[in-house]
Amino acid sequence: MGRVYLVGAGPGDPELLTLKAYRLLKEAPVVLYDRLVDERVLALARGERVYVGKGEGESRKQDEIHRLLLAYARRYPLVVRLKGGDPMVFGRGGEEVCFLLRHGIPVEVVPGVTSALAPGLPLTHRGLAQGFAVVSGVLEGGGYPDLAPFAQVPTLVVLMGVGRRVWIARELLRLGRDPEEPTLFVERASTPREKRVLATLGQVAEDRVEVASPAVWAIGKVVGALAPWILKRAWAEV
After folding, report:
1. Where does the signal sequence lie (predicted)?
2. Is 207 a catalytic residue?
């Protein structure tokens, strides 16, 4: 049996890879990769590349990915499962670990820089935020998340929420957040196509913000604390 490594590819910039991730990409005879893995990171892989992404309109199921991982682990001594960001932050890494362990396959997780951190914001800026939460804008099967437990968290980072940004903003306002609270969208963070859009939560709720997926969405006073720096880097402002 081979060993499977669940490797975090980070948000895009290959220089944000860990040294271990870089080494494994060079050594692995096969790499199974997701839709959001940057092409520059993927280019580092020397072995066979197998696409197992699940983008919009694609029908590949998680159990099919499990079967592929098992088949390759029985065939090769080293298998890399490459995931955008961190494999254990909304990457279904836990499901893959459990499946492989049930089948006697040794697994190791190689952490990556989660896209939630890619904008470089001080999520716990002293005096403004003593904690933060990272939430998904979409639940399994396309369901809508319950935001009530996170509504008053000082800094809220939303992943996979671009398509539902208006609903999310309105729900957060209904739950008591300030419509003047600053928010920041960062499209394709850490890549040459990065774009930053600064707006208030109220402007998002009014559907006045144009932003494309994939993007990280940060909400909270910490965004306003670095507004001059953010504006200097921003490509668009509402």
Report:
1. none
2. no
34 carries an active-site annotation:
yes
Distance separating alpha carbons of residues 67 and 199, to the nearest angstrom: 44
Yes or no: domain 116-232 corresponds to CATH 3.30.950.10: yes
User: What gap in Å lies between CA 197 and CA 210, rounded to an integer?
Assistant: 8
Q: What are the tens digits of pLDDT across the range 21-41?
A: 999 999 999 999 999 999 999
Q: What is the largest CA-CA distance in the chain?
A: 56
Give the separation between CA 166 and CA 143, rounded to whole angstroms: 15
Count the residues in the chain: 238
Q: What is the pLDDT of residue 236?
A: 47
Of the residues 38, 83, 86, 160, which is catalytic? 160
pLDDT one-digit tens code per residue, 59-96:
468 999 999 999 999 999 999 999 999 999 998 999 99
Residue 146 falls in the annotated catalytic set:
no
Catalytic-labelled residue, pool 54, 88, 195, 221: 54
Residue type, 17: L
Point out which residues pair with 78 in neighbouring strands: 3
The phi and psi torsions of 89 (rounded to 5 degrees) equal -115, 95
- 24 touches 3 (CB < 8 A): no
> Domain 3-113 falls in which CATH fold?
Cobalt-precorrin-4 Transmethylase; domain 1 (3.40.1010)
User: Which residues in the chain are classed under CATH 3.30.950.10?
Assistant: 116-232
